[in-house]
Amino acid sequence: MKKYAFLLVVLIVVLTSCSYEPGVSEAYNKYRFKDGVVTVSVPGWLIHLAAGFTELDETERELLESIDKVKVIAVDDDELNRRIDLHEEFYQQIHDRKEYEELLVVRDEDESVTIFGIMDDESVIREMLILVGGDDNAMVYIKGEIRPEILNDKIDLTNPDRFLSLNF
To answer: What pTM, to 2 d.p., does this model score?
Structure first.
């Protein structure tokens, strides 16, 4: 009986830890073993652990503690960057599912950046997806409970030389 109880607990843990994020899972599975692509997946418990061991101010610690998962795909190879465009490849797929709302869109002749989000009724960001394509290709997926006032303290949009200047 103990063996079945243990197997049931393991099965529940595995099933609850598996998740499927539209667009993110497809991109992660397609590119995670390609040469020239860096993929990183960081679980929330590790992020929370890091928040406790580093010297951060209160807002920075609060931001890290509000994140439950991070997945990153970054194309590091110049040749591969010229052949693919993650934004072009996955934008329509994410947009058509209508699960994510477009929070920010930036189009330039050589770059496209879209930030998608899922927010609850209190404007808490539950999921955020940053999709970058063009000269550089990346996809960043963040899951958690991020309150906008935490981001307001850390993002400076007044710097004319950069798209976003984070004040960490």
So the answer is: 0.74
